[in-house]
Amino acid sequence: MTKKELRTAYKKLRQQLSQNDIEEKSLAIANKILSLPIWEQTYFHVFLPIEAHKEINTEFILHLLSGKDKEIVVSKSDFETRNMEHFLLTDNTKFETNDYGIPEPQNGLEVPSSKIDVVFVPLLAFDISGNRVGYGKGFYDKFLSECRPGTIKIGLSFFPAVDAVHDVFESDIKLDYCVTPDEVYAF
User: Fold this and answer.
1) Which of the chain's ends, N or C, has fewer CB atoms near its CB within 10 Å?
2) For the residues 141-146, what does the mean pLDDT come to?
3) Which biological process annotations from GO are given for this protein (predicted)?
4) How far apart are CA 127 and CA 130, in angstroms?
């Protein structure tokens, strides 16, 4: 399937999930993350979910990272430039929800992309080769291209992999892992 076809199909699948489904699947994903070989890393980038799009609730992951004394980084997006700024999450971080329904930090200590060790990547679908399909705005491909080559990229999905995304571009950045409620895919 093409990215456009996958976006349409997986947005529909997500809309069929109940709030209870989202919570249960999000918790299962967080539990699967515990098995990944990432815990010696320090700086972890976590996306905050767009609830209207029924994205994975990353609160469980935030609790895991906090419990392991990891440095948590969250982003603010500029929709004109397609750039993301990254900030250290602290007790003093203030959030506002932007026009797209994304909770964003309004203040804090900025963290350069080059310092981030692990990125949890939002997506709609992914394939067995580690190609991801997002919303098509290019924010994460741009951000991931700014990270160090060794940065670990972990997709999070409610659904299993598809066989192939047919219209992958050279600029698309592959995942290292993708975690679903039932499986951890390593690429």
Assistant:
1) C
2) 94
3) folic acid-containing compound biosynthetic process; tetrahydrofolate interconversion
4) 6
Please state whether the predicted TM-score (pTM) of the whole model is above 0.90: yes
Question: How many other CB atoms are there within 10 angstroms of residue 146's CB atom?
Answer: 14
> What's the pLDDT score for residue 171?
81
| Token pair listed for 169 | 């571009």
Structural domain total, the chain: 1
Pick out the residues of the known binding site for substrate: 50, 55
Annotated binding site for ATP: 3-7, 132-140
Residues making up the annotated binding site are 3-7, 50, 55, 132-140
Q: Which amino acid, 102?
A: I
Domain with 62 in it: 3-186
Long-range contacts of 83-91 (CB under 8 A, 24+ apart): 83/142, 84/139, 84/142, 84/143, 85/110, 86/45, 86/110, 86/111, 86/112, 86/113, 86/116, 87/111, 89/46, 89/62
